[in-house]
Amino acid sequence: MRYKIVTTKNIVSLSSGFQESQRREPGIPRMGLIYAPTGFGKTTAAAWLVNRENGIYVRAVSLWSPTTMLMAILAELSIAPPRFPAQMLQAIVAQMKLSQRPLFIDEADYLLHNPRMVDAARDIHDRAELPVWLIGSQKLEKQIAQRKIVAGRISQWVKFSPCDLEDTQRLAKELCLVEVQVDLLERLHQAAKGSIRSIAVGLSRIEAFAKVQQWNEIDAKQWADRPFFFTWQVDYQEE
C-alpha cells in the first residue's frame, strides 16, 4: 500500500471551505468546523491541510483546562508560557498575527467540558483575525450550534460524508499496488458503510492476499467470502 492523501470528495470540500475562511471580508467571521462520525478521515484530512497551510495544530485531551489549552498552543509555537493565562492568550495572538498561521484544534469536543476553553478559541479568532478551525464529532456540531456566540463566528461548516463508490475506486487506484476489480470494490464499499478508515483496512487486506497469491489483480470471485475487517471496525455510528 502506498501512503498518500487521496483527493476524495471530503478533501475537496475541506479545501474549498478553508479557502473561503481565508477571505478577509469586513464582518465575515473566519472560524470553521469539521465534523463527522469516527472513521471518516477528519484527522488525516486536517493533518494534510495543516501541512499545506503551515498551520498550528493541537489535539485536545480530556484533562485540558483553559490554561493547559493555551500552554499546548504556545508549545506548538515554541514560546515559553507567560505566568498568567491572559498573557498566554496575548502571546498566541501576537505570534499568529506575525506568522499569519491558522489554528486547528482537533478532538474539540473536549473544549465543551469547560465553556471557557470555547471562549478562549473564540477570543483567539477575534483578536488574531485569522482562521481558527475546530475538528470533532457530530455531537460537537450540535452543541456548538446551541452556543450562539460561537456558532455565529463559524462561517464554514464542513461535514464529512461517507465515501461513495467513486471515492472507493479512487482510493484503490492510488493506494493499492495491485489492481482491485470493480465488483470487489463494490462489496468492500458496501461492507465499510462509507468509512474511509475501514475501506483502507479492507484494501490493505485485499492487497496482502493478492501478493501472497502472486496476483497483479484481484476480483470478487478470487476474494470469495473472506472478511474485509472485523465487524466492530465499521460500527462508526455515534450516539
**Uncertain residue segments:** none
CATH class of the largest domain: Alpha Beta
Q: How many structural domains can be distinguished in the coordinates?
A: 2
Helix content: 40-55%
| Average pLDDT metric | 94
The CATH topology of the largest domain turns out to be: Rossmann fold
Q: Number of DSSP strands?
A: 7
- Give the CA-CA distance, first to last residue: 33 Å
CATH architecture title of the largest domain: 3-Layer(aba) Sandwich
CATH superfamily of the largest domain: P-loop containing nucleotide triphosphate hydrolases
Rg estimate, integer Å: 20 Å
| Strands side by side in the biggest sheet | 2-3-4-1-5
Number of helices: 11
Relative strand content: 5-15%
Shape: elongated
SSE series: HEHEHHEHEHHEHEHHEH
Sheet with the most strands?
A: 5 strands, parallel
Structural class of the secondary structure composition? alpha/beta
Would you write up a description of this structure?
Strand 3, helix 5 (115-128) and strand 4 (132-136) form a beta-alpha-beta unit. The chain starts with 8 loop residues before the first helix and ends in a 16-residue tail after the last helix. It has 239 residues and is of the alpha/beta class. 51% of the residues lie in helices and 12% in strands. The radius of gyration is 20 Å and the shape is elongated. Strands 2-3-4-1-5 form a five-stranded parallel β-sheet, with helices on both faces. Strands 6-7 form a two-stranded parallel ribbon. The longest helix has 17 residues, at 196-212.
